[in-house]
Amino acid sequence: MSEPYFLTPAFQEKMWGGTRLRDEFGYDLPSDHTGECWAISAHPHGPATVANGPYRGMTLDQVWAKHRDVFGNAQGDVFPLLTKILDAKMDLSVQVHPDDAYAEEHEHELGKTECWYVIKADPGATMIYGHHAKSRAELREMVEAGQWDQLLRRVPVKAGDFLYVPSGTVHAIGKGIMVLETQQSSDTTYRFYDFDRVDPTTGKKRPLHIEQSIAVANVPHSDPQLNREETIVGDVAVTQFVKTPFFAVYRWQVNDGAGTFARGEAPYTLVSVLDGAGSITVDGTAYSLQKGQHFILPNDVKRWTLAGNLMAIASEPGVRA
Fold it and tell me: Is the whole-model pTM more than 0.85?
């Protein structure tokens, strides 16, 4: 019988994390400074565990390795996507991620293109998104002069906003923001600037990666053009935020209704329920959905019906050349 596979997340403690993952979603957190929920993850630094079905108790990376038919016999050594929820009680460090070629050569894993759906944002919250340097030489000069306020570009954000963060984008999630992040399955981060903070656990500043950051940063910065589309599936409002060779990301919003979806070209679908409650019906069986659940619709799920009052973010692997 075809069925969705629900997942038990892994959690990451961070100096900038807090308790909002527990307050907002009811998760059992390892501490009061938990920054990341690795919700749909096959990465070795925090794999999620299958909670139901024939693969119950297996981690997602194990299912990918041993049961590739679940994913339509998709190619690749590693499961390509990683879905997280991040809670920034404090500003994250300013970061930049490499592309596939640089990451393969220097880190031996995938590059890291990502995107954020803003779940919550305190009044006045901002992201660092891009920079003002016109050339790599100017970028280096401003960094060496410590002109971070002049260099870094801040943008205001609110709940419901979506930002696409291609590899090479200088960025940082700001204090008071919670996002759902869809990214390539990579844990390579180059820390560009950390506001001269001291890590309370070590009493020292965290290491920076200035040379790598300058090497991989996009210069000059330009905002990517998104191919956003709005469609209706039954009573479900579907927003396509972005479709790239790395992933496609959608919002499913249903209010007192239902909609039946048919699988398209993507071999499988990742889903995170961020608000409300309802159900998903697969192969004649209805599965209840609650805020904070995460699941995969495997390849043998060809049709499904979403119903209730809920909002979910769905993603699919992109088609790589």
Answer: yes
